[in-house]
Amino acid sequence: MRDVFLSNCEKNFIQKLVSEGHRLDGRNYNESRRLDVTFGSEYGSCIVRLGETKVLAQVSCEVTQPKQIRPNEGILYINVEISPMAAPQFEANRQTDLTVYLNRLLEKCYKDSKCIDLESLCIVVEEKVWSLRVDVKVLNHGGNLIECASIATLASLAHFKRPDVTRSGDRVIIHTIAEKDPIPTVLYHYPVCMTFAIFNNEVLLSDPSFIEESVCTSSTEEGINTGGGLLVIGMNQYKELCLLDLNGAALYDSNIVHKAIISAAESSKQIVDLVKQRINSDDTMRQKRIKINFADMITSDHLLSLTRKDLSIQLKKFNVDDMTLKNDMEHEDNDDEPEPSKYDGKFENKVMTIFEIYSLISVVPSLPQTAEIISNKGVSKWIEISSDSD
Amino acid sequence: MELETDVVSHASGSARLRLANTDILVGVKTEIDIPKPDKPDSGKIEFFVDCSANATPEFEGRGGEQLANSISNMMQKAYHSAEAFNLKQLCIFEGKQCWKLYIDILILECGGNLCDAVSLAVKAALFNTRIPFVKAALMDGGNIDLQLSDDPFDSKLLDVGTAPLLVTLCKIGDKCVVDPSAEEENCSVISLIVGVTGNKRHYYPNHTDKQCTESKCTTIGMNGPGSVVSKTLKDAIKQGIVAAKSLDEALGQALLKERQQNIGMKKHSYGFLK
Amino acid sequence: MGIEEEKPKAFQLKPMKCEFNFLSKSDGSAILSQGDTVAVVSVNGPLDIKSTSQSIEKSTLEVLYCTKGGKPSVADRYKENVIRQTCEAAVLGSLYPRTGITVTIQELEDFGGLLSCCLNCTCLALLNSGVSMRCTYAAITCAIDESGDIVLEPSKQHLDTARATMTFVFDSREKNLVTSVTEGVFSEDTYKEALARCHAASDLVFNFYREIIRKYANVI
Amino acid sequence: MAEIYKLIHPLKYFNDYISREIRPDGRKFHECRNIKLNVNSLKTAEASAVVKCGNTTVVCGIQLELASPKAEEPDFGYLVTNLELPALCSSKYRPGPPSDHAQVTNYLVSNIIVNSKCIDLKDLCIVPDKLAWVLYCDMVCLDNDGSLVDACIIALISSLKTLRLPTVTYDAETEDINVDPDIRTPLKVYGLPVATSFSVYKLPERDILITDPSIYEEEMCGGIGSNFIVCSNQSLLCGTQKFGGSNLPPESQEEALKISRDRANVVEKVIETCLANNCEINEI
Amino acid sequence: MPLDYRRFNGPEDSVSYKRYTNKYYKGYDELYKELVDDKGRRKDGRALDEARSMCMFFARTDLISQAKGSAYIELKKTKVVCSVFDPREIPHQNEFSQLGQLYCEVKFAPFSCAQQRRPHVDAEDKSLSVALRQALEPTVCRHLFPNYQVDVFVYILEHDGACLAAAINAAGLALANASVPMYDIITSSSVAIIGKKVFVDPTEAEEHLAMMSPETEGTNHGIITMSMLSELKQVSDFVQIGSMDIECVTEAMDILEKECENIVPNIQKVLVHNVVQSFNQRKQLEAEAKEREIALNVKMEEWKKLLNAG
C-alpha cells in the first residue's frame, strides 16, 4: 500500500475545526451521512452508500462438507477486498493491514455474535451443509469503511435467499429458483458496526469522514499525540453490544465509551430499521415483478461533482457590508444573527465579485521604488469558521 | 552441553538442548493419519524447523527460511531408512490408520553447529515421546472408530535407539573439525554432514540384541561453496562416525539418568528459558 | 438518455445509461448500464509505481477485473488481459513514461454482453480521467443462435442456447478491428457477416459516447 | 555488427527488413516455419507429443486418473489442460507461480479445445454419477519463439489422437474398480483444430500481415499477446482471437482467413503422417 | 491444500488408474526379483556396473533459442533439459556481493513420473535445486561476475532414475555452452545399493527399491550421487541417503569416481562438436555476406548505368 500523507496544515485545520464545534462537511458531532441501500437483481447483492463511501456486498452459497467439530452447522465465510478502485493508494491483489482488520471485525460482528442460524444451513449431518460466502468489495473509500461494510454485509445476508433442497434417499436435489421458491437466511438479530472518531480524548464524532479518520489517528507535527482514536461499536437492534474495538492513542475513559454506546444504540436502531424497510420494499417490488437492477443507481447525481462545492463551512458572517467596513468592525461578532442556511440557496453570500475583491486590496508604496499590494490586513488573521448546518 | 526433556507439557514429547551458544527446543506432536498406499504398514514422520528471528539478526524476515529448509531436509533424509527409525512402530491398523509424528524444531539461539544440535535434541525428544494406547477399534463399514485411552500415563514409548545423529565436519586447511563453533563455520569453505545411526545399547540397558551394534551412515551431504579431494572425504566420513559414536553414548547416558531422576523424585525444573 | 432515435431503420441497441465521476476517490470513473448489464470502472493515474514494473518507454497499464463474488479464476485473468490489451492500443502511454495507470473494473450485473459492457465502460472511464488517448473504441457482442441467425447484443437466454458468441472492438479513427474474442464454432461466412453488422452497430456506441461527453462538458 | 544493431535499435532493424519485403529470419511475409512432430516419446505419460515450430518447442504429456463425476454433470468426464511456461523457455519468465501471460495463453489453448468440441466429455464417462476418466493434459513450453498457441494446439491434439484408454470394469455392488491396462481403446477425437497466428505491422502506407511470427516479430508488432489467432477446424472456425495491438483492416482479415485455411491443411497432413508412422511402429 | 487459482484444476479426489490394476502393489521380494535375472543382468540388459552413459548417452547443446546456453541429456528414458541465461543483477539485495551467485532450479514436468506430479514446487524439487547449486558452485568462476547471478534452470521431462546426476551433467554442459567461465568440466554419476549389489546409474525401479527398507535388519541400502571435477580430482557434491556401513560407502565412492571419469569424454565430444559447428556456421555466414555484397555491387552498377542512361 502506498503511503498517504496528510499535511500539517490539514491536520491543524481539522483539529481546530473540531475543537470549535464544527465539522468539515457541516454535520453535527453525532450526525451521520446519508445512508442508502440499493439491491441488485440477484438475491444477496447490494450496494451501500454512506455519504461518498460505497461498498458492494454479494452473498453466494455452495454445498460443502461441514467442519468436523461442527458437523451440523453451515459455514459462513467473509471476504473483504479493497482494490485500487477504493482509492489510489491501494494496490491490486495485495492484502493490507486494513483489509485484514476489516475482515476480522466483520467476522467478529457476524460470525462470533451468532446472529445467523447456522444449524438451519445443514442439509445432511456430517456430509452436506450450505456454505455462505460474503464478498465485500470496497468501491470508494470516503471514510468509515467499517460501518459501511458492516451495513452492506448485514443487508446482503438479510436479503439473500438460498435455493431450496429436497432429499430423496441418498441424493440431494438442489432446486433452481424457477422450480421452487428460495429460502431466506434466518437472522436472530441484526448487528451493525458503528465508528466514532475521538478528538482530544473528549470529542466524539459519529460516522467520521476519511480526513477525520486520518487526522484523529495521527499525531501532530511535533509528534505529540493528540489524544485521538477510533472507537468501533457493534450493536444489534435490541441495543445489545456485540463488539467493541478501540484504536489509536486516545485515553478512553468510561464516560466517553458510555456516551458512544448510547449514541450507537440510537443509530443502530435507525440503521437496522432502514435496512429492514428497504428489504421489505424490495420484496414487494419483486412480487410485483418489477425488475430490480443496479442500473437504477445511475442518476445524474454526480453530474455537478466537479463544480459543486463539497465544503459546507464558510466564513462567518461573510457580508459585503461588513467587509467594506473597517477592520475593527470585522471581529465584533454577533452570533445571534442567523446564518445563511444551505437550503435557501443564497450562494451570492459566499461569492465575492471581482469588484469586491479589488475593493479589499490597496496598493501601498513601501520601500523606495516599490509598491506592494496589501489586501485588507484584518482578514488575514484567523478566520472564524461556522458550519452552516447548525 | 545441557539437556532437558519434557519441557513442553502439551507436546507428546519434547526436549531442550543447549550446546555452547546454540539453543534448541524440540516438540513432538502426534496425530492420526491414513498411511500412504504404497507403505500401508508404516507411519509418517515430518520435520519443521523454525528459525526464530531472535536466534540471530540474519534470520529476520525470510532470511532463515533457506537454512530451515535445508536442516529439515537433512533430518528427513537421515530418518528415511528403517534402519534409522522404524516407522512400523507407528502403525495402528494396517492400510487404514497410523500415527503421524510432527517434529517441530525451534531454534532459539544460533551459535554454530546447528545440525548436530538439532539431531541430538530430536533424538532426546523422541526418546520421551509417549504415544497413547489404542484401547479398541470398532469397524464400521469401511471406517474405523478408534478409542484412545484417556489416561496420559497409559501410553507406550518409542524405540529410538537407532535414531541417527548428525555430525558436521568443517574442513579448515587440511584438517576436519568436529562440532564447529560459529567462527569456525565462517572460516571453512566446505563442510560435510554425516548422519550416523545410534546404538540401542546406550538407551536400553537391558537390550540384549547383539545384532545391530554397528553404526551406519544414513545420510551424507555437503555444504558450502568449496570442494574436496575424495581421500579427504573418506577420512572425514570415518572421523564423523567415530565422533557420532561417542556422542551417541553420552546422549544415551544423559537421557537414562534423567529418566531415573524423573521416576525417583519430583522433577527439578530448570525453568523454561534459563 | 439512450440513443434510440438515431438509426431506427437498422437496429437498436439496448438502452445505455452512463454516469461519470461515480467514485469520488478515483481520478476517473464511470458506471455504465447496457440493458440490464452493469459495470463500474475506476481509473487512477498516471501515478508512481514500483521500479520493477516501470517502463522507460511508456506508462504501465494495470488492469484488475473483479467479479461480484467467488474465487479468482483463470477466466478472470483472461478477461483482464482482453481489456488491458485493448486499452493499451487506445491509450497514448508513451506520454507518461515511468508511471502506471491502474484500471479497476467491477462487474455489477450480468445479463449478457458483460465483456463489451466492461470494455465500453473502461473507455468512458479513461475519457473521464483525462488520460490522453489515441482513439476511443467501442465493443459490440453478438451471438449466433441455433438456426444460424446473428443476434446483436444477446440476452442471457440467447447466450445459453447460442452456437457461438463473438465480441468485437473497433477503434474510432479507422473503424478497424482492435480486439476480437469468440467462443463456439461458426463458418467463415457467418463470421464475416457478424463482423460487418457489429461494425455498423459500433457507430451507435460512438454516438452515445459523444452525447455523454457533450452533456458533461456543458456543465464543466 | 548486425546483432548489435538489432540490440540497440530493434525497431529500426525490423523496419529495415520489412520495408525490403523480407523478414529478419529470411522468410517471406506469409511463410510459415518448419514443423517437426514426434509422438509417444515419453514413456511415463499415457500419450505424448513433442512439437517444434521453428524454434518454438512444446511438449505435451497426458496422464490418466479416475474420479467420480461432478454432481451437476453426472455423465461427463474431465479434460484438464494446463500450459506451463517454465522460466527456462525464455528470459522473460521468472520462476514461481504462473504469470498473467501464462494464464492467458493457458486459457486460450483450453478454450480452443473446448470450442472445437473435438473431445466429447461424455466419452470420458465410465459409469454415470460414479466413475469417469480425468485427462490431465500438461503442455510444457521448452522454447518460446513466438506463435506459442499454434504449437500448443498441435502438441495437444496429436497427443490426444494417440491416447488409448485402458479398459475399466466397475462392480456396481461392491464399488470395486478394476483396470486392465493391456486392453486399450483409442479415444475418439472429432475433427482437428489448427491455430494460426498472425502479427500486424503498420507501415505508414499499408498494413503488413506476418504469418507465424517469431517472438521478436511479435514484440515489434504491438507486443507479445496481441497476435491475431485464427483457429479453424475442418472448414469451420472455432475461434478468432485478437487482443489489442495494431488494428486489423478487413482486407487483411480476408487474407488471414485464407492463409489459415491453407495452413490447416498442411498441419493436418503433418499430424496424419506422424500418426501413421506411429501406428506402423506399434504394429512392428 | 488450497486450490491453485492460476491453473485449471481437476477434481480433488482423482486417483491414478494404476491403483486399480492388478499389478499395483508388489512386495519387496517380488520387486527384487524383477530387477536382476539369473545371469546377473539387469532388466534392460546392462551388467550391474554398466552405466547407461556407455551406450545410450545422448547429449546436445543449443537446444533453446531463447537461452544463452542450453543442453539436453537423455539417458535412455531419463530426459533432462537445462538452460542458462545471461547474468543479471541479483534481485532484492541491498549489499554488494563479491562473488557472483548461481540460481538453480530443478523442476519435474507434471507427466515426468508414473504418478502425476502437481505443478507446485515440492520438497523434492527444492532439495534437488539445493544439491545442484552445491555441485555447480565450486566449478564456476564466480569472482568474474560480482553482484550478478546466473540462472540455471533444469526441467526433467521424464524421470527414470539418476535424475540428479543427469541434471548436473546437463547444467555443466549448458554453462559451458553459455560461455560461463568454469574451472573444470563437471560430471556426475549415481549408484543404488541393495544389499551386496551395487547398481551403477540406476533406473527408477532400482532407485525405488533401494530406498525401501528391506525386511532383514542390517542390510545395506540407499542411493549415492557424487559429482566431480575430473581434472582437478575434486568432489563437489556428495549426497547419500539410506543406510549403509562405511566400507560400502568407500567402495561406492571408488566406483563413482571411475564412472564420473567415464562420462568426461562424452561431454568433451559434445563441447568440441559445438565449437566446430559454431565455427562452420560463422564461416557460412561470412560467405553468405560476401555473396550478398557482390550481388549488391552488381545491382549498384546496374543502377548506375540506368541513372547514367536516364
Automatic annotation (TrEMBL), chain A:
InterPro entries: ExoRNase_PH_dom1, ExoRNase_PH_dom2_sf, Exosome_comp_Rrp42_subfam, PNPase/RNase_PH_dom_sf, Ribosomal_Su5_D2-typ_SF, Rrp45. GO terms for cellular component: cytoplasmic exosome (RNase complex); nuclear exosome (RNase complex); nucleolus. Keywords: Cytoplasm, Exosome, Nucleus, RNA-binding, rRNA processing. GO terms for molecular function: mRNA 3'-UTR AU-rich region binding. Belongs to the RNase PH family. Residues 31-163 form the Exoribonuclease phosphorolytic domain. It is found in: Cytoplasm; Nucleus, Nucleolus. PANTHER family: EXOSOME COMPLEX COMPONENT RRP45, EXOSOME COMPLEX EXONUCLEASE RIBOSOMAL RNA PROCESSING PROTEIN. CDD domains: RNase_PH_RRP45. It comes from Diatraea saccharalis. The keyword rRNA processing applies. SUPFAM superfamilies: Ribonuclease PH domain 2-like, Ribosomal protein S5 domain 2-like. The lineage of its organism: Eukaryota, Metazoa, Ecdysozoa, Arthropoda, Hexapoda. One of its GO terms (biological process) is exonucleolytic trimming to generate mature 3'-end of 5.8S rRNA from tricistronic rRNA transcript (SSU-rRNA, 5.8S rRNA, LSU-rRNA). It holds the Pfam family RNase_PH. This is Exosome complex component RRP45.
Automatic annotation (TrEMBL), chain B:
Residues 1-132, 164-240 form the Exoribonuclease phosphorolytic domain. This is Ribosomal RNA-processing protein 42. One of its GO terms (molecular function) is mRNA 3'-UTR AU-rich region binding. Belongs to the RNase PH family. GO terms for biological process: exonucleolytic trimming to generate mature 3'-end of 5.8S rRNA from tricistronic rRNA transcript (SSU-rRNA, 5.8S rRNA, LSU-rRNA); nuclear mRNA surveillance; nuclear polyadenylation-dependent rRNA catabolic process; rRNA catabolic process; TRAMP-dependent tRNA surveillance pathway; U1 snRNA 3'-end processing; U4 snRNA 3'-end processing; U5 snRNA 3'-end processing. The keyword Cytoplasm applies. GO terms for cellular component: cytoplasmic exosome (RNase complex); nuclear exosome (RNase complex); nucleolus. The keyword DNA damage does not apply. It is found in: Cytoplasm; Nucleus, Nucleolus. InterPro entries: ExoRNase_PH_dom1, ExoRNase_PH_dom2, ExoRNase_PH_dom2_sf, Exosome_comp_Rrp42_subfam, PNPase/RNase_PH_dom_sf, Ribosomal_Su5_D2-typ_SF. CDD domains: RNase_PH_RRP42. Keywords: Cytoplasm, Exosome. Pfam families: RNase_PH (PF01138), RNase_PH_C (PF03725). Transmembrane segments: none annotated.
UniProtKB/TrEMBL annotation, chain C:
CDD domains: RNase_PH_RRP46. The keyword Nucleus applies. Belongs to the RNase PH family. It holds the Pfam family RNase_PH_C. The keyword Plastid does not apply. GO terms for cellular component: cytoplasmic exosome (RNase complex); nuclear exosome (RNase complex); nucleolus. This is Exosome complex component RRP46. Residues 12-131, 138-196 form the Exoribonuclease phosphorolytic domain. Its main location: nucleus. It is found in: Nucleus. Keywords: Exosome, Nucleus, rRNA processing. PANTHER family: EXOSOME COMPLEX COMPONENT, EXOSOME COMPLEX COMPONENT RRP46. It comes from Diatraea saccharalis (sugarcane borer). GO terms for biological process: nuclear mRNA surveillance; poly(A)-dependent snoRNA 3'-end processing; rRNA catabolic process; rRNA processing; U4 snRNA 3'-end processing. GO terms for molecular function: RNA binding.
TrEMBL record, chain E:
Its main location: cytoplasm. It is found in: Cytoplasm; Nucleus. Keywords: Cytoplasm, Exosome, Nucleus, RNA-binding, rRNA processing. The keyword Nucleus applies. The keyword Iron does not apply. Residues 58-181 form the Exoribonuclease phosphorolytic domain. One of its GO terms (cellular component) is nuclear exosome (RNase complex). InterPro entries: ExoRNase_PH_dom1, ExoRNase_PH_dom2_sf, PNPase/RNase_PH_dom_sf, Ribosomal_Su5_D2-typ_SF, RNase_PH. CDD domains: RNase_PH_MTR3. GO terms for biological process: nuclear mRNA surveillance; poly(A)-dependent snoRNA 3'-end processing; rRNA catabolic process; rRNA processing; U4 snRNA 3'-end processing. Pfam families: RNase_PH. Belongs to the RNase PH family. This is Exoribonuclease phosphorolytic domain-containing protein.
